Amino acid sequence: MADQIRVLIVDDIPETRDHLTKLLGFESDIEVVGAASSGAQALQLAAELVPEVVLMDINMPDMDGIAATERLSAEVPDAAVVMMSVQGEADYLRRSMLAGAREFLVKPFSSDELTASIRQVYAREQEKQSRRAAAPVMVSSNGTGPAAPATDGGGDRDGQIIAIFSPKGGVGRTTIAVNMAIAAATELGKSVVLMDGSFQFGDVGVLMNLNPKNKSIADLVPELEAGEPESLDTFVINHSAGVRVLLAPPSPEMAELITPTAVKRVLDALRRQHDLVIVDCTSWFNETTLAILDAADTVLTILSLEITSIKNMRLFLEVADQLGYEHGKVKLVLNRADSSLGIRVSDVENSIGRKVDHTIVSDGRSVVYALNRGVPFFLSNREAEVSQDILRLAQAVAGDRVAAGSDDARKNTQKKSLFSFR
Ligand SMILES: Nc1ncnc2c1ncn2[C@@H]1O[C@H](COP(=O)(O)OP(=O)(O)OP(=O)(O)O)[C@@H](O)[C@H]1O
Ligand SMILES: [Mg+2]
User: Which ligand 1 atom minimizes the distance to the CA of 198?
Assistant: First the structure.
């Protein structure tokens, strides 16, 4: 039947495969097209059978479900993965979502939960594909799409854009972006929107415990192509902490739909309707990250007491100079500044030839506890030193506006050098 959802089951236990096959056999709109007993077989069958949904067990010998999902996302991107796990821990969820899974089911689950998940991911996938087909101008990633019609949009503010960047991953960008956004909203009374600028592997949603089914920047971009909407309410999520959030696309391959031109348009729309736009950027340079850094009034560059972080920071500061960013635009934030790893703050400053502007203490307990509960530490542990550091940072930056100037022209002549390091 043409209308059936084609499902591939992947589980190393034969009884589970049989059980799931029988269970789904009762559903007239679902067809089990195959069953694989390993990650490797899953990749092979998925390429042959082109399923729409893959039910993937997380724990398998050889290639586990997360690794298989990562490969599947690249090799058969239209197959939506529903991960199945006996563990419901946030870390598993996070890793699965980062690998490209669309849903996460904790075993044992009911047949209703199972079929509802399959139908949901299928519906979302269909919607995504039709959106992609309807918006061909965005597919090029060179930023040469047509200019948006001039509108004066739904807001008249001139909010401040703060990019949280680092030339090395894993140094605390997302942690700082999320908690700083909450601090600025709750303590400084600002209207704040937090944009996940890590379009491929954004995890702002995971840290804030937001449902990945929510709308994302991928929904907003086509809307802005047609002119600025009166209100952004449909696209940004109101988090209970009083912050608004614009999520990254739900799956990595959609990142290519977000061109630099589109990013600029989004930032413009956000700044017109908020006091503060905080953007959690990726740690590598590409055209879209550059568009964010250019548009930003302030770039908070995060570094840690690690030699690689310091080396990359030195290179980044040189590049920022070449780009013509004013000195005050780039601020250095040393995260986990008190961790005793054999490098002192003064060593860092000597090495990069510049003072660190702000420091944030290391507090693994608060940070990890918050992460596992999906409640940012600024909310659950406001008195902690790490929260106070974040608040000081928010106060210093949000009250300290630096004009961005026109960096675009300078950028165009210097851009090449940006791609030469990571
Ligand atoms: N001040 C801190 N004290 C203790 N742990 C921290 C602190 N800041 C960040 N961490 C931990 O460091 C890890 C990396 O943080 P985070 O995900 O925010 O970094 P990132 O730069 O956004 O990484 P990615 O490159 O993956 O996007 C996380 O496990 C986080 O909990
Ligand atoms: Mg991050």
Answer: 27
* Distances in whole angstroms, Cα of residue 81 to Cα of each of 11, 90, 108, 251, 415: 13, 18, 18, 11, 37
Q: Give the position, in ligand 1's atom list, of the atom nearest the Cα of 360.
A: 1
Q: Which residues pair with 334 in a beta bridge?
A: 303, 359
As a whole number, mean pLDDT of residues 257-274 equals 93
Query: Does the CB atom of residue 172 touch ligand 1 within 6 A?
Result: yes
Phi, psi of 343 (to 5 degrees): -120, 130
CA–CA dist 220, 230 (Å, integer): 12
**C-alpha distances in angstroms, 359 versus 169, 204, 305, 366, 396?**
18, 22, 11, 17, 12
One DSSP character per residue, 370-399 reads: HHHHT--HHHH-TTSHHHHHHHHHHHHHHT
Residue reference for tokens 């067809």 = 31
Continuous segment of H or E residues that includes residue 350: helix 345-352
Give the span between the Cα atoms of 316 and 312, in whole angstroms: 6
**8 A C-beta contact, residue 51 and residue 80:** no
| Ligand 1, pocket-test mutation among 98, 173, 175, 198, most atoms within 8 A of CB | 175
How confident is the model at residue 404, as a pLDDT? 38
Report whether residue 371 contacts ligand 1, using a CB cutoff of 6 Å: yes
φ and ψ of 165, to 5 deg: -130, 160
Question: Which atom of ligand 1 is nearest to 203's Cα?
Answer: 27
27, pLDDT greater than 60: yes
pLDDT at position 84 is 92
Ligand 1 and 366: CB distance under 6 A: no
Specify burial of residue 376 (Cβ count, 10 A radius: 0-12, 13-18, 19+).
Answer: buried
Both tokens of residue 403?
Answer: 């004009």
364 lines ligand 1 (CB under 6 A): yes
Q: For the residues 278-293, what does the mean pLDDT come to?
A: 90
pLDDT in tens, 365-392: 989 888 777 788 988 788 899 999 999 9
